[in-house]
Amino acid sequence: MTSTIAVARPEVRLATPVLECRNIGKEFPGVVALSGVSLTIRSGEIHAFLGQNGAGKSTLVKILTGVYRADHGDVLVDGEPLRFRDPRDAEANAIAIVHQDQPLVAQLDVTRNVFLGREITRTGGVLDLSTMRARTADALRQVGATFDADTLVAELSVAQRELAAIAAALVRKPRILILDEPTASLSDNEAELLFGIVRSLRDAGVTIIYISHYLDEVLDLVDRVTVLRDGKLVATMDVGETSRAGIVQMMVGRDIEQLYPKETIAIGEPLLEVRGLAQGNMLRGVDLDVRRGEIFGIAGLMGAGRTELALSLIGALPRSAGSVMLRGEPSSPASPRAAKREGFALIPEDRRHEGLVTDMTVRENLTLPELSRFSRFGIIGFRSERATATSLVERLRIQPPNLSQLTRNLSGGNQQKIVIGRWLAGDAEVFLFDEPTTGVDVGSKVEIYKQMIELARRGAAVIFISSDFEEIAGMSDRIAVMHKGRINKLFQPGEATPETLLYWASGSADEVMPNADADASPADDAATQMPSATAIASGAEMAASQSFWARWGTIGGMVVVLTLIAILAPQFLSLNNIFDVLKQGSVLAFIALGLTVVLIAGGFDMSAGAVSQFTTNLAAGTMIAGMGSAAAIGLGALIGLLAGAINAALVLVFGMPAFVATLGAMFVAMGATLLYNGGQALTLSNQPSFFFIGQGYIGPVPFVLILLLLATAILHFVLKHTRLGLRMYAVGQNLVAAELRGVGRARYATASFMIGGLVLGLAGVILASYAYGASALATGIDFLISALAAAFLGSTFNRAGELNVVGTLIAALFLASLSNGLILIGISSQALPGIQGIVLILSIALGVIHKRGIGQVLIF
Amino acid sequence: MSVSMTSKPHPSSAAVIGLLRDYGAILGMIAVLSIFWYLKPAFLTTGNIENVFRQSAIVMIMALGLTVVMKMRGVDLSIAQTADAAGLIAAMLIIAGYPVWMAFAIPLLFGLVVGLVNAVLMAYIGVPAIIGTLGMMFVIRSGELMATNGAEPQILFTLPRGVTRNFLWLGQRDFGPIAALIVLAIAVFLISFVVMRYTRFARYAKAVGSNVRAAFLAGIDIRMTFGLGFVIAGVLAALAGVALVSRTGIAMPRGAEPFLLDSFAAAYLGTLASRRGEMSIPGTLMGALFIGFLGNGLTLLGLGAPYRYALNGGFILLAMAIGALKRRN
C-alpha cells in the first residue's frame, strides 16, 4: 500500500521538494525491508519518519545517506536523480546525519571526531587544528554543550556524545540534516535544548528529517510526518492534520489477528519478585512480581532498559541496586552459569550474536546449555543427546529437520526456535524472552508463542519482552510498560491494546495529562507502579579514578624503579652511563617506533623484528661489498617499504588476519636472512662514516639518539597533526565510525604498514652500524618482544591509552635503563628477558583487568 | 522447484572445481613430496620414513596443544620455551642422579604449572594471549639461562649407559616393532582426537571459539574452558620437550625454539584438510607430517634452515589464502 494522503491546503507554502524518493525498494536476504516508498521532503521543513521497529525507517535513512544502495527506485536531490555510492557522496550533496548510537572514535578528542573525514588542512595534509578547534567550539556552543573541543570523547557522557555528534553534523553545513533518535539518551532539559537548536536550524533554512519513537516531542516539533509500516509507506501528512492517536493507529495498523494462540492458564504463586533493581543509567529501579503460569509482558522501545533488566537478572550485567527473590529465596547469580543453576533461561535479543553459535550444528546448539545432562565423566553420550535433539526438532518443527545442518544457514525463524529449544530440555523455571520474534516469519512466530504457553502451563514464569506491541497485547497476561529505565505503567490482563502500550512506551514518564482527543488514552484508574528510589554509583567517577591509575600508575612505578636503582648503584646516574644507556636503547626504540606505527592502523605485526634483522644483514652485506652508506640506507628503506606493502597486501587483498599474515612474513624474512648470510655473522670493520650512525657522538650526545628524537618528532607530527595520521588512528580504533565518515580501511592500513615498514627497515640499518655488522643469531623474535613491551607500556602513558610514538620512545628508553641498572646493581643479564616479559604482562594487565574479558585474540 | 539445476551450466566441471578446492591443497602437498622422491629416491625408504615420523612426533605433540588453544581464538607462544625447559629439567634430574620416573613426572608438572599460570593470565585476568604468552616465553627463557649458567648444554649421551638407558628408551628404542616415540605420538594423537570430538570440553571450546558471548549467555564457564586450553598446551609441550631430549640425548637451552614456528606451520597447514578452512586435530597431524617430510627432503637435497623457514612461511600464507577463498565460496 503506497497511497500518499496528499494534503493540499491553500495556506501551505508552495515549498520546493529538496529531496524526493520515488518508488524506493530494498531487500535483504529473506526480508523485504522497503518496497514502493515514494515521498517528498520540502525545503526548510522538519519532517518526521515514524514507525515501529522494523518498519523500515533506518533502512530508508541509510539509503538517503549512501550507506545502503536501493534495489529499486530513485533518490532525487533538487530534482536531480543521484546515486550515492558511499556516505561521502551524500555529504557532498550537503546531507548530514546524526546516527542513533553516535559512532565516534573514543580515543580522539572532540575536534578530531567532529572533522574526521572532512578535515581542514594546510598544504601537505597538515591539520589546521586552530581553525578546526575554533569551528568545533562554535558548533558546540550552538548546541549548548558545556565541554570544550579538546575533551576526549571517551570522557564524555552519552548525552554529551550526542551533542558532539550533532556538532559534527553542523560543521558540515548541511542543507539536509537527518537526526536518528537524537533524544533517546538525553534528559528532558537536554532534549528541550536540542529542540531549540533544531528549530533555529530550520529557521536558518536547513531541512531536517527527524526520527523518533517519542511521539509527544515529534508532534510539538515537526511540520510533517511520514508513517512507515512493514517497509511500506502508510501516509505523509501535515502535523496539524493528525493527532497522536491517529498516528499510533497508523503505526500499528491492523487489529489483533487470530495470530495469537493465547490460552487461559491458572496463575500460581509468585515465583520471581524484583524490588528496586537498577543497572547503571539504563535501569533505574524496577519492581515486578511474576507468578507461575503467567506470561508477563514487558513492553518498551529500544533503550528503555528492557534488555538490561533481563541481563542483570541472570548476572550478565552487574546490578547497582535492588534485590531479587526467586521461589522466596534471594537470588543474585554471579554469572549466567549460576543463573542457569537457579533456573533462569535467557533467549537473548540479538539471536545471531548472543544466542546462536552459528558455526555449530543444530544438534550442538540445541544441547549447549544442558550438555551436562547428556554426559558422564565429561564424555558426551551421543545417543541420548541425539534423541533429545531429535525430539526438540520435532516439537518445534525446525526446518529442515536435519541435526547436522550448520545453524548459520537456517532462516531467522528456525534459528530462534533453536535458541528457545535448547532451554526446553532442562528444568528452568523463569524464561526471559527478549524480542523473540524480530525477523521471524509468521509460522515460526506462532510456534514460538505456543512454546511460551506450553512453558507457562508447565508452571514456569515467562517474561516476554518486546517492542512489537501487538504481540505483547495479544500474548501476555499482565503487562508492564518500560520507559527510560523505569516501569511507568502496569496493565492488568485484558486491559492493554497495542495503542495504549505504544502510547505509554513513547510518552515521558512524568507525563500527567492523558491526551484529551485520544480515545486510546489509558484508563485513569490504572495505577502506575512507582519505581523505587535508588542510589546509583556514578560510573563516571569510577572510570576517572581507574584512568588516573592507568595513566600515572605506570609512570610513577617507573620513577620508583629508576630511583631505587640510582640509590643502589650511584654510577647509574653518571652522565657517561646515561648517554651510554640512551645509545643502547635507541636501536631498540627505532624498532619499537616502527612497530607502533603498524599497530596503530594495521592490526598486528609479528614480522617487525625479523624484517629489521633482514635489513641489518643487507646493510652489512652492502657495506662489505663496498657500495657505501647511501646504498645501505637506501636498500634498507626500500626493503622495509616492500615488506610493509607485502603485509598490507596479504591482509587487505587476501583478507588474512594480520597475525597470520605477518607470522608468515616473519618466517619468510628469517629464511631470507639466513639465505643471505649463509648462517655467518657479517662483521664490518673500518667503515668510520657508516659507524658514525650508530656509534658516533656530537659533543657528548650519541648521534643515534639525535636521529631517534628526530624520527620520533617526525612520526609524532605525521600521526597527530596530519590528515593521514588522524585517519590511521580512526581506522585502527573504530573502523565502523571511520567508514560512516567515508574513511575506508584499505588506504590507511596500507599507509600504516608501509610507514612502519620504512622505519623498521631503517632501524635494521642503524643496528648494523651500531653492532659493527650483523650477528648470525636469529634474534627477530627477541626484538619483537622488546618492541611490543615498549609499545604497550608506552600506550599506558597516554590519557586515552592509545598507542603513540612518544610513549613508545619513553618506554623503550626506560626498558634500556632498566636492563642497564639491573646489571649495575648486580642482577644477572640472564634475568633480563624475564623481567621484560613481566613488565610486558603487567603493563597490559593494568589496562585489561577491569574489563572482565578473556584474552582471546580477536585479530585472527 | 528443483528445475533450477538446469541453470547451472556445467555441473561436472563445477564438481571438479569443488574437488580441487577441497582436496587440491592435499594433492599439492603430495606433489611437493613426489618431487623430493624423484630427486632423491632415498626420501621414501622405510628407514627415512621412520626417521621423519620420529622427528614429526615432537612437532605434532606440541602443535596439537597449540591447535586446542587456537581453536578457541587463543594463541600460545610459550609452548616451545616450555618444551625446552621441560627437557632441560629432565636432563638435569638424570644428571643429578634422580630416578627416571621423576625425570618424566617433574617436567610434566612444570608444564602443568606453566599452563595454569597462562590460564590465570589469559582466562581470568584477560591479558591478550599474544602478549601474555610472549611474556611467559621470556620469563621461562630467563629461568633456563640462570639454571644452566648461560645456556650450557646438559649432555646425557656421555653418561654411563646404565644411568640413561631407561630415560633414553622413549626416544631411541622400540616398543614392540615400532619406535616408542611413534607409539607415544599415536597415543597422544588418539587421546587428543577423542577429547576434541567426544567430550563436553570440546563442545564448549568450539562455542568459546566461535561465539564467546553466546557461550557466556548460555551459561558456559568460558573462563574455565579457555584456561583449560592453555593447561593442555602446557602439558603437551612439556611432554614434547622430554621426548625431544630422550631422542637426542642432549638438552640445549633454547634448542626447542624452532619448534614454535614449526608448530604454527603445522596447525595452519592443517586447515587445508578442512572444508571450511578450520583447524582440526587430524589436520594438525597432517600438517606436522608434511613439515617433517619437507624439512627432511630439504636436508637430503642439501638445502638447510633458510629454505625451511622460507617455505614454512610461504606455506602458512598459502594455506590462509586458500582458506579465505574456501570461506568466500
TrEMBL record, chain A:
The chain crosses the membrane at residues 549-573, 585-604, 624-643, 650-676, 696-719, 748-768, 774-793, 805-825, 831-849. GO terms for molecular function: ATP binding. Its main location: membrane. PROSITE patterns: ABC_TRANSPORTER_1, ABC_TRANSPORTER_2. Residues 19-255, 266-509 form the ABC transporter domain. It comes from Mesorhizobium liriopis. Keywords: ATP-binding, Cell membrane, Membrane, Nucleotide-binding, Repeat, Sugar transport, Translocase, Transmembrane, Transmembrane helix, Transport. This is ATP-binding cassette domain-containing protein.
Automatic annotation (TrEMBL), chain B:
The chain crosses the membrane at residues 20-39, 51-70, 82-110, 116-140, 175-196, 226-245, 284-303, 309-325. The keyword Transport applies. The keyword Cell inner membrane applies. CDD domains: TM_PBP1_transp_AraH_like. It is a multi-pass membrane protein. InterPro entries: ABC_transp_permease (IPR001851). Keywords: Cell inner membrane, Cell membrane, Membrane, Transmembrane, Transmembrane helix, Transport. It is found in: Cell membrane. This is ABC transporter permease. It comes from Mesorhizobium liriopis.
